[in-house]
Amino acid sequence: METLIQLTVTGLANGAILALAALGFALVYKATGVINFAQGDFLAVGAWAVFAAIATFGLHWSLALLFGVAVAVILAILVERFVLRPMIGESVIAVIMVTIGLSAVIRSILQMLFGTSPRRLPPVLPGGTVELAGAVVPVNRLVAIAAATVVLGAFTVFFKRSRHGIAMRAVADDQQAALTMGISVRRIFAMAWALAGISAVIGGLLIADIVGVSGEVATFGLIVFPVVILGGLDSIPGTIVGGAVIGLLVQYSAGYVGGGLQQVVPYIVLVLILLVRPYGLFGEIRIERV
Amino acid sequence: MAAISTGVHHRSYRSELRLRHANAEHVRLAIAIALLVVLPFLASPFWLTVANQVGIAVVGAIGLNILTGYTGQISLGQGGFLAVGAYTSGLLVARMGVPTGVAVVVAVLTTAAVGAFFGLPALRLKGLYLAIATLASQFIILWVVRNWTVVTGGVDSLVVPRPALGDAVLRTDFAWYWVIGIVAAVCVVVSRNLFRTGIGRAFMAIRDHDIAAEAMGVDVVRYKVLAFALSSGFVGLAGALTAHYRTIVTFERFTLEVSILYLAMIIVGGLGSTLGSILGATFMIVLPALITQAGQSLQGSFLARQLPAIQLGVFGLVIVLFLIFEPRGLARMWQRTKDYFRLWPFRY
Amino acid sequence: MTRTRQLLAALLSLALLATACTTDDDGATDPTGGATGDGTAATGDPIVIAAIFDLSGATADVGVPFADGAKAYVEWLNANGGVNGRPIELLSQDYQYDVANAEQLYSQYQSQGAVAFSGWGTADTEALRTSITEDMVPFSSASYAETLADPAETPYNFVPAATYSQQMRIALRHIADASGGENAQVALFHHDSPFGLSPLEDGRQYITDNDLDITLEAHAMPGGATDYFGELSQAQDAEYIIVQNVPSLTAQLARDIQSQGLDATLLCLNWCADEVLVELAGDAANGALGILPFAPPSQATGDLSAVESYLADKGQTLDDINLHFTQGWYQFSVIVEGIRHALDQGLELTGSNIKTALEDMPPLETPVTTAIDFTAESHAGMQSVRVYEVQDGSWVGITDAITP
Lengths: 290, 348, 404
Description:
A: mainly alpha, ABC transporter involved in vitamin B12 uptake, BtuC, two-stranded antiparallel ribbon, B: two-stranded antiparallel sheet, two-stranded antiparallel sheet, 4 strands
C-alpha cells in the first residue's frame, strides 16, 4: 500500500511537470498549427535560466522565475518571428524539421554556455518528507503537484474567460474568420509562443529543483509526445489527463514490473492510442479514411 | 529533370527510354565517375573513411527518400530499421556462419518485412501523427534490441567477422570503397528507374493526394505498405553494410539522432530527388568531418574546446537555414546552377 | 524579405560572438604537448600519443577532471625531461561519448603517427577492438571491463586499474566479511549500458565459486529518470546496494534512499565513488562505501610532490583537484612508463614493442594505487583495492587492500 501511494505521488508529480511541458506544445499547435519538436529544449532553457539567475546572480527564486519568464518569452517571440513565420504554408515535414533543427541549435548554445555537468540548485521547494497514510513521501513532489495544478487551472480559466484567451481559441478555430472579427493573428501567434515559453519555464523550475539541471532535461521532455497524443493535440484539459496517465504508468511499471519496461511504456501507449483513437481522448475528431 | 534539356530529339522508343539524353548530361556523368574512381588513390586515410561513410549513408538516404520524398510518408524510425538490418546480417554471420552475401540479402528482406509491419499505422495516419508513430517505432525497436538479450546480446556489442572470399579478407578502407561504391551505384540506378515505372508513379500519386489517387484506381493500401517495405529494404542494406564495415555492432549507433540525421540529409538534399539524396548525404557527413579537422588544426582555440557543441549547432543551423531560404534543397540549387549556364545570357 | 534576412544574420552573428566571449568553465587546461622552457625541458623527437576524452557527453562529470589530470601529466613531464629527453606530443579531442566520433578520431590519429592510444568509454573501446588488434596499437582506456583485459581477446588493450569485475568481487568479499556468515541481500543498481552490466556475471560467478551466502539482484537505472523510487521499491529488502554508474545519477539514488528512509548501505564502484558524488548528494552520501582503485589525494599512500609542484605552478593546491585528476595523471603515466621501458631496452617504438615492454615491465608503484603489473597472460594491472567510507563529507579508507 505504501509503495502504491509513493509511486502515485511521484507519478503525479512527474505527470504534472509533463502536463506543463505538454501545455506549451498544445498551445502552439492549437493556435498556429505548428508542431514544436523543440519543446523539450524550451523546458531546458527555462531550467537553465532559472539556475543561472539563482546560482550566478544570486536572486531570490521569485525574481529568478521572472527572469526565466523574460528569457523564455523573448526566445519564443524570436523563434516565432524569424524561424516559423517564413515557414507558413510549407509542408508538415518541413515545419517538423525546422523545429528539430531549432532544437539542436538551442541545445548547442546551452552546452556552450553551461557545459554538460549536472548542477544542483539551492532548494526552492520545501524539502523533507511527510507521512501520507503510512507512506513516506517527499514534500517537494506534493508542492510540485499543487503548483502545476494552479498554473494549469489558471490557463484553463484564461482560455475560457479572458478576451485574449477567447481570441486564441478563435484563431485556432478559423484564422480567416478571426481576422474578419478584428483579431490580430500575428499577435495571437506571438502570444501563443510566449505562453508556451512561460509554461516551459515553470516546468523547468520544478524539474531543476527536484532533479537538478543537466542535459537530461531535454530527454525527459521527449515524453511530451505520448502525453499530447494521448490527451489530444489541441486540447488543454487533455494535456492534464494525458500527463497524469503517462506519469503514473511510468512509475507503476518501474515499481511493479521493472526490467526497463518503464522506458518504453509511454511509446507503447502512444502507438496503441494512434491505432485506436488517433485524435486522443479529448482532441477534435476529423474523419478521413482511405 | 531530363525535360529541362532542350534540343533533344528522339527518333525511336529506345532512345526515349534512356536515363540520360543530352550530350551535356553524358559528359557530366563521365566527369563524376572519373572523380569517384580517382578519389581513393588521392584521399588521406581519414577522408577515405569519410567517403565510405558517405557511400553507406547514400544507400540509406535513397531508401528514406523513396518513403518520404516520393510517397510523402514521414518516417522518424530509420535508426530502428538500420538496427534491424545490421543485427540481422551481423547475427547470421557471427552466430550461424552464413556467408556474408547471403546474410546481407536476408537482412534486406527481413528489414523490408519489419518496415512493412511498422508501416501499417500509415494506413490510418497521416502527416504529424504518422511521424509520431514512427518515432514510437524507433524507441520500441531499440528497446527490443536492447532487451531481447537471447538473440541480440542486449547491450553488449556484437562482433562480426570480416567478409572473406576464400583467402581474400575484405579489410582495408580502400577495398571497402569499391564494394560500397558499387552497391551505392546500383541503388542509385534502381531508385531512378523505380520512378519511371508504374509503381513509382503510384507512389507519387499518393504523395500528391491519396484520396484522388484512390479514386483513380491506385490501391493506396497496397502501395503504402510497398513503399514502406521498399524503403526499409534500402535502409536495411545500409545497416547491413555498416555492420560488416565496422565489424562491431552496438545499439548506440542507431539512436534517434541517427534517424534525424537521415531526415536532415534528404531535406537538405531536396525531397523527391535521387540526386538530392546523394548530395544531402555527402553534405551532412562531410560537414562535421570538416569541422573536426578545423578543430584539430586550431588546437586550444575556442573552436576546439567547444567542438561538439559547435557541430551540433551547425547541424541545426544548416537545417533551419536551408528550410527557410531554400526549402527544395541542394538539388534545386544544382538545378538553378545548370539553368543559369544553359540559359545564359538570358535570365529565363 | 531582405530586411528580415539582414536582421536574422545580425542576430546570428551576435549570438555567435556572445558564445565566443563566454568563458567556458569546464576547466580544460591548455592541451599543449610541446616543451615548456624551464631548463629541464624535453627536446628531441616528439613521441606522439593520441587520446580521446569525454568533456561534454554522458560521462563528462568524471571525464573532465580525468582529462585535466592526463594533460597536466604530459605538460609536467615535458617540462621535466620528457621520456629519456623526448617530449610527448599529445593529440586529443572531446568525443562526447559517441562511438562514431571515437572511430573517426582513431583513424585520424593513426594517420598522424600515434604510437599509443588512450581511449575512454566501454562502448568505444569495444568498437575499436578489432582495429587496434589489426593495427597493433597499444591501448588503455577508462573502461575497466574484464573482457578487455584478456590478451587472447584483445592483445593490445591494457587495463591499469582493477577491473569492474574485480571491484565487484572485492565488494562482495567485504560484504560477506561484514555480514559474518549471515545471509546478505544485495542489489546491483547499474547504468543502462554495457558499462553498467559489466561486473554482474562475474559477481554471480564469484558468489557461487566461493559459496557466499549472498542474494544478488540487478536493476537498471534508465536515463532521463527523475527518481528511482520505482526501482528502489523493487529492491526494498536490500541491505547493500552496489552501484555501477556515474556520480550524478548515483547522487539522485542516494537522495531517494534517504528520502524513503531505507536503511540500505550504498557501495559505489570506482566511477561513482568520488568527490562529485559527495558534492551532489550532500549529507545523503554519508555512510556510503566505495571501492576506489585510485585513492583520493588526501588518502594517498605515497609521495604526491610531482602533482603538488605542478599545481603550485598554476597557483593551486591538492584541495583544488579531485581524485579523477590524479587518476588521469597516474593512469597516463602507466603508458608512458611502458614507452620509457621500451626505449631503455633500445627498442624501436612500434606497437608490438611497446606491448611487450608493458608486459615485461616490473610492477609500477604509484602514490595513489597498489602496484600495477601486466603479464603476457593478463592485462589486468591491479588486483587489490582498499574499501573506503564517506565520513563527514570525505572518503576515508576503512580497510587494507583486499584481494578477493
